[in-house]
Amino acid sequence: MNLSNRKILLKKEVKEIIRINSDSAFQELINSGQFPKGFRLGMRLLGWFEDEIEEWLINRVAERDAKS
Known about the structure:
The chain is an alpha+beta fold. It is built from three helices and three strands; from the N terminus they run E-H-H-E-E-H. It has one domain (3-67). The N and C termini lie far apart (34 Å).
């Protein structure tokens, strides 16, 4: 996939998608290594690729279903 075709999400958008309000809870998820790594867009700005966030969510659902 070409980088120019990949949508970049900012922290606020990612938190809305995964339904986490707390910055500290979001940071814990990142620090635990359970979440896709973001990348620097500027000095204080991070971004994530939308397709990687979607894949993470799909995998979480698959983990849940495998346990059932």
